[in-house]
Amino acid sequence: MAFQNIGIGNRDDVFYRYKMPRLITKIEGRGNGMKTNLVNIVDVAKALARPPAYITKFYGCELGAQSKFDEKTNTAIVNGAHETTKLSALLDTFIKKYVQCYGCGNPETGVIVTKGQCISLKCAACGFSSQVDMRDKLTTFILKNPAVKKTKKGLRKAANERIQAGEVVAKQGMKELKKGYKDVKKVGKKKGPSSDEDKSSAKGSVSDDADSSHGEDMVEWQSDTSAQAAQQRVEEQLNEVTSEMVMLSFNKENMDVHNRTFNHDSSDSSCLYEKLLKTFKLALDEGCSPDQFAVQLHALCPRISQEAMDAFFDALFDGVQKGLANEIGRKRVYLRKSITDKYRQVLLLGSIESHYSSRPPEICKEIAISLKMLYDLDILDENVIIAWYRKGLQNRIKVLAKPFVDWVQNAESEED
């Protein structure tokens, strides 16, 4: 099945992670009985997290034709003969109006019907609430046929499926690019030995061809790794205070000092923790933004360890005793920018467990609330939480977190 990026504005982005199947149509019948069958409308609707009846009705409203979606047979019919290109263009309009967030542009939205009979799109990525134009004809159909409320677990599963599909397509595109580049290198080797001038001219011609092809198979991705370029990138991404903290020295003596200072495999983990804690606190005191803080974390800890995560967590929540969940809500942007994969989620859980282990029993009871806050903010994944709870020995912190873990495993709806 062929996939494409969701949204016409992202059509040429090879690494865009939100994918959907290409619309497939089939014209049936003759004369006045001609109709267009939307063959894979169910798969398209699933990728967009919208009922297929909404898309079918949208086609009917825009084309001025009768349309119907049969839930028993999962078939969508629009009267009349309509070209696939025209229907695909209308589908892009539907995505822009009823799928993509008006704030960030991501398709991670849910349709919400308010008490005042208005329709809004709630974005799970940025939290923005987009108000749909109620003058559109489709809004009447949506108000009369509200979508079945999905569970939070179902929404997460659908989102993960879309992301996984996008990653598969992106990997295939990268394989094709690498394969094309290898073919170019093989062609160059077959030409046999040549002089330095020939090599330089051949290299220049390949570079010119790559520039003219605008991202075709002959493109070679490169980045300047010199000391000057690295320092320039740091200065562009960090402010004046934090850029001085990232020391980029490339002579042998200074590199050895740098490795001894920030080596995560070092036995002196307490020394590493103290150095990172001091650095992170200074950055926060100077008003470091979430993006700059994430860049600094990656620059200092490219292979992040538990000690580095503990320093990050303690710097971010310095001195917090009661009410950690409320503080997590205030610092959620910092966490979202820095906790970017499941490995870091596991380390974050370790830091939280360590945080509550040193607190009195009355404060330790708040761990379930803190975990739920991180779960609701999509910072921690349910599978990571369950795996953390089951791994290792059961201590008093995990015992206090057990009610929330049981809720995550057995919850059937947001209200539960």
TrEMBL record:
The annotated region (Disordered) lies at 182-236
Keywords for this protein: GTP-binding, Initiation factor, Nucleotide-binding, Protein biosynthesis
Positions of the W2 domain: 262-416
UniProt biased composition (Polar residues): 222-231
Keyword Protein biosynthesis among UniProt keywords? yes
**CC terms in the record's Gene Ontology section:** cytosol
**Biological process GO annotation list?**
formation of cytoplasmic translation initiation complex
Pfam families on file: eIF-5_eIF-2B, W2
User: In Gene Ontology terms, what is one molecular function of this protein?
Assistant: eukaryotic initiation factor eIF2 binding
User: SMART domains this protein is in?
Assistant: eIF2B_5, eIF5C
Q: Which domain of life is it from?
A: Eukaryota
PANTHER family for this protein: EUKARYOTIC TRANSLATION INITIATION FACTOR, EUKARYOTIC TRANSLATION INITIATION FACTOR 5
What's the stated role of this polypeptide? Catalyzes the hydrolysis of GTP bound to the 40S ribosomal initiation complex (40S.mRNA.Met-tRNA[F].eIF-2.GTP) with the subsequent joining of a 60S ribosomal subunit resulting in the release of eIF-2 and the guanine nucleotide. The subsequent joining of a 60S ribosomal subunit results in the formation of a functional 80S initiation complex (80S.mRNA.Met-tRNA[F]).
Family, per the entry?
Answer: Belongs to the eIF-2-beta/eIF-5 family.
In Swiss-Prot or TrEMBL terms, this protein is called W2 domain-containing protein
To which species is this protein native? Ceratopteris richardii (Triangle waterfern)
Organism taxonomic ancestry: Eukaryota, Viridiplantae, Streptophyta, Embryophyta, Tracheophyta
